[in-house]
Amino acid sequence: MNAIQESPFIPQPGHQSEIQGFEVPVDVKTAARFLGVSPSLVYAYVERKQIPHFRMMGRTIRFSLSELQKWRRQFIVNGGINEYYRKTS
Q1: Cα–Cα distance measured from residue 84 to residue 43, given in angstroms and rounded to the nearest whole number
Q2: Which pLDDT score is estimated for 4?
Q3: Is 39:28 a contact under the CB 8 Å cutoff?
Q4: Rounded CA gap, 47 and 22, in Å?
Q5: pLDDT tens digits along 10-53
Q6: Has this prediction a pTM greater than 0.85?
Q7: Cα–Cα distances in angstroms (integers) from residue 41 to residues 21, 31, 38, 77, 80, in the given order
Q8: Are 69 and 4 in contact (CB under 8 A)?
Q9: DSSP conformational letter for 73
Q10: Are 65 and 12 in contact (CB under 8 A)?
């Protein structure tokens, strides 16, 4: 059970965040809650261009939850179990 995915306050990709096939972009605060980090860390990622984002009207930062979900998956760690067995086999 993942507490972040089951939170009623965070729209999930493919559910409430879509309107007629188009994904509704979310703001920094919602993206931070989705990722489980602080908004200031999200701003730091944006500044360093380390997180997928886009700007609306030049200044407003928005995120696609489906893109954030893909980005978040690259950081999943399985505890190194597969790496250990691969090296010893």
Answers
A1: 36
A2: 45
A3: yes
A4: 26
A5: 555 555 555 677 889 999 999 999 999 999 999 999 999 999 99
A6: no
A7: 30, 11, 5, 20, 26
A8: no
A9: H
A10: yes
Size of the chain in residues? 89
17 close to 52: Cβ distance less than 8 angstroms:
no
Element spanning 55, H or E: strand 54-56
Residue type, 41: L
Q: What is the pLDDT of residue 52?
A: 96
Q: Can you give the pLDDT at residue 2?
A: 47
Cβ neighbour number for residue 57 with a 10 Å cutoff:
6
The domains located in the chain, with CATH, are: 3-88 (1.10.10)
Tell me, what amino acid is at 67? E
